[in-house]
Amino acid sequence: MTQTHxxxxxxxxxxxxxxxxxxxxxxxxxxxxxxxxxxxxxxxxPVVTSADARAYRDRILAALPESADxxxxxxxxxxxxxxxxxVAEAHASGLITAVKLYPAGATTNxxxxxxxxxxxxxxxxxxAEIGLPLCTHGEVTDSAIDIFDREAVFIDRVLDPIRxxxxxxxxxxxxxxxxxxxxxxxxxxxxxxxxxxxxHLVINRNHILAGGIKPHYYCLPVAKREEHRLAxxxxxxxxxxxxxxxxxxxxxxxANKLLPCGCAGCFTAPxxxxxxxxxxxxxxxxANLEAFTSLNGPAFYGLPLNEDTLTLVRDMPAFPGHIxxxxxxxxxxxxxxxxxxxx
Length: 343
Ligand code: DOR
Ligand code: ZN
Known about the structure:
Layout: E1 4-8, E2 12-15, H1 20-31, E3 36-39, H2 50-63, E4 71-77, H3 84-92, E5 96-101, H4 121-130, E6 134-136, H5 150-165, E7 171-173, H6 179-186, E8 192-196, H7 205-209, H8 226-237, E9 243-245, H9 254-257, H10 272-282, H11 289-301, E10 309-314, E11 322-323, E12 330-331, E13 341-342
Parallel strand pairs: 2-3, 3-4, 4-5, 5-6, 6-7, 7-8, 8-9
Antiparallel strand pairs: 1-10, 10-13, 11-12
Zinc ion is lined by residues 14, 16, 40, 248, 250.
């Protein structure tokens, strides 16, 4: 008899959908499996005001495949000029679910992010007051700090001081990549959560650098040593409510990945659930897959659980190497291991 595994329909708590042709090309891969996703605001130009977020949400809704049942959960891109009142109104109207903090220069399209964290204090205070979560890209940008240490240093230099200054602020550490981040999140009972990507559960830095440079495994925060990947796996597969799936699926055309200075990002939306089922099964934790993909995120955000379900079937899924878009091919993340579950 075919083995199956049924979970509540999952959500993606960190997703890049882009805009225009790319949005239309990548959106079906997410709506096929996910009910909701937190939509990252790092467009060019970024989604800074509530008017920007409303217009972007409408473009996403207009791009939905026919009969798709999908809710984009919008975010605002925090700048030093963000207006606390605009944020509060966007939250009160139900337009936004979170605000995203990019340290200026940390990653793709983060130039408008925050350089001086004192300048966003009033916004963070307002967010703490109204219960609106802050999603953080947790890396310092100090060129003196080794890129493999930037997440750990961010916790000490930026995140912990922000949390001390705003103790009621709800914070999500996005796409964590280190045991230090896992430990930090585990040290806090409430008000702090973390997303973990699919790819960081599967690759370590050898995948990027050993035996030739592999741009399709390059993302930010960059994958770290094996001991960190194992810490992430144990956090994700443990069922601990503080950890939930944020794929950070981040499509770039191959032309933009395969450059002397290529873009950061792994496109995991099409095969994420097959990979996760494999990972959780390998760790004898299939029973906790649903907590990671479908329960812990809504609980953190105070949103209802999805009512419908998704059934994984144990067989050999086949994924193409890439999807075609009007901008050119986008390579689908290669998990570098056989997969045995179809979503
Ligand atoms: O790998 C990444 N890609 N990390 C980010 O923080 C941004 C993202 C993107 O937008 O391409
Ligand atoms: Zn991201």
